[in-house]
Design brief:
By secondary structure, the chain is mostly beta strands. It is 10% helix and 37% strand. It has helices spanning 2-9, 12-28, 285-292, and strands at residues 31-33, 39-42, 47-49, 52-54, 63-68, 75-80, 83-84, 97-99, 111-113, 122-129, 134-144, 155-157, 171-176, 183-188, 191-192, 205-207, 219-221, 230-238, 241-249, 260-269, 272-281, 321-324, 330-333, 336-339. Strands 2-11-10-5-6-7 form a six-stranded mixed beta sheet, with no helix packed on it. A five-stranded antiparallel beta sheet has the order 15-14-13-18-19, with no helix packed on it. The radius of gyration is 30 Å and the shape is elongated. Residues 28-142, 152-252 form the Ig-like domain. It comes from Astyanax mexicanus. InterPro entries: Ig-like_dom (IPR007110), Ig-like_dom_sf (IPR036179), Ig-like_fold (IPR013783), Ig_sub (IPR003599), Ig_V-set (IPR013106), IgSF_BTN/MOG (IPR050504). Pfam families: V-set.
Length: 340
């Protein structure tokens, strides 16, 4: 009776408007759906985070926002008023996110995330708002290989301008945070200027020069070393404006294995003629070479052989002297014998 009484007191035009508004409310109701299981991907790869409207109505005129629910700075990507609006985007996602614009009319609001980083692991919310309704869906991303940055391999540290304007006339500087000698790579006045570059990075860094005009300021770091582990800042300056983003690099060992070099020396002592083998990682080769020169042994000229041994059970570097006689199956460490 209450509803009938309200309708009686409404003008005909108001009543029609009321019915139309109710119809649009019902028509615009939708659900947001996505995968139930976590998405698993490898670091460095691209990943599509699925999200869509059900029923498959157009999302072109709606607001589509992707958020990190486990971070203080939350915005991963924002589409609003028919365009991307990423002014408040988390810096580590700059230039790495994109919606499939042609798919929005079909209700597909999936997000493409490029060049996955270990820090991308976490919970993501796909939030969609229309004028009269909103709904969201949360999914989880897991990154495999997040602890594997293999010593000796190359690595690209991603850094992009958004919008994709040219960085050729600007200054691009890569620096190590929390280091006294900070400069990793400097590009200014249309060329590299690495006079103050940290010694350990000499000859191992390069920008993609042809990509600078597209706003790509990524750095290629060759022949990774354990000392490369840490935080890197990509700083870009242009005509009184500057911005930066920080990335984190984790360098582990040779991916569950250790690469061993055996330096064979011939020396004479009370055990008669023996071979002295020093097992060491490649990174400590020259350190041990200099130490060995002080010992009362002599090098057979050019009798240096490189062997590659793979082992999984021993984590620490074998930097002791291992003595063996004719049989290589018995190694003598001090006064104890070890089966090889």
């Amino acid at each position: 009776l209450e509803i009938i009484f309200i309708f009686i007191n409404l003008k005909a035009s108001d009543f029609v408007s009321f019915l139309l508004s109710c119809w649009f409310c019902i028509a615009e109701r939708f659900n947001v759906v996505g995968p139930d299981a976590p998405l698993v991907a490898e670091a460095g790869e691209d990943l599509v985070l699925p999200c869509s409207l059900q029923p498959n109505i157009s999302a072109e005129g709606m607001m589509v926002e992707w958020l990190r629910t486990d971070l203080t700075d939350r915005q991963v990507h924002l589409y609003k008023d028919y365009k991307d609006t990423n002014d408040d985007q988390i810096k580590t996602y700059r230039g790495r996110t994109a919606l499939f614009k042609e798919e929005l009319k079909k209700g597909n609001t999936s997000l493409k995330l490029s060049a996955l980083q270990p820090s991308d692991e976490g919970s993501y919310k796909c939030l969609i708002k229309s004028e009269s309704w909103y709904e969201d869906f949360t999914l989880r991303v897991e990154i495999n290989g997040k602890d594997v940055r293999i010593t000796g391999e190359d690595l690209v540290l991603p850094c992009f301008l958004q919008p994709s304007i040219s960085a050729e006339g600007g200054m691009v500087e890569w620096i190590r945070q929390h280091e006294t000698d900070r400069q990793v790579h400097l590009y200014a006045d249309y060329k590299d200027r690495n006079d103050n570059q940290m010694e350990s990075y000499r000859g191992r860094t390069a920008l993609f020069k042809e990509e600078l005009k597209k706003g790509n300021a990524s750095l290629k770091l060759s022949a990774l070393q354990p000392s490369d582990d840490g935080a890197y800042k990509c700083l870009i300056r242009s005509f009184g404006w500057n911005d930066d983003v920080t990335l984190y690099v984790e360098v582990k060992g040779e991916k569950h294995y250790n690469l061993l070099m055996i330096l064979h020396i011939c020396c004479t002592n009370k055990l008669s003629v023996c071979n002295v083998a020093i097992y060491l990682t490649l990174q400590t080769f020259w350190h041990w070479y200099n130490v060995i020169k002080g010992f009362s042994c002599y090098f057979v000229p050019f009798f240096l052989k490189t062997h590659f041994y793979v082992y999984n059970s021993i984590r620490s570097s074998l930097s002791h002297f291992l003595l063996f006689k004719n049989s290589p199956h018995i190694l003598f460490l001090g006064t104890g014998a070890l089966a090889s």
